[in-house]
Amino acid sequence: MSETGLARTFLAASALLAFAAGGCLTPGQEAKLGESEAQKVEQTMGLVRDAKLEGYVRAIGEKLAAASERPEAPWHFMIADAPEPNAFALPGGYVYVTRGLLALVNSEDEIAGVIGHEIGHVTARHSAKRIGAAVVAAPVSIATGLAGLAVSIVSPFLGSVVAATGPVVTGGLVIAPFSREQEHAADQIGQRLAARAGYDPAGIATFLHTLDRSVSLSSDGERSFNFLDSHPMTPDRIENTTARAAKLERAPARPVARNHSDFLRRLEDLIVGPDPAQGVFEGQTFLHPELDIAIEFPSAWKTVNTAASVGAISPGGDAVVALRLAARGSSVDETVRQIEQEQANVAFERFEIRGLPAARTRLAARGQSASITLIGYLGNVFAVVGQSAERTAGPYAQTFDATASSFRALRTSERGAIREVRLRVREARAGETPGAIAKRTESTWSAEALAVANAVEVDASFRSGQEIKVALPQAYTPRSH
Question: How far is CA 208 from the centre of its chain?
Answer without folding.
Answer: 20
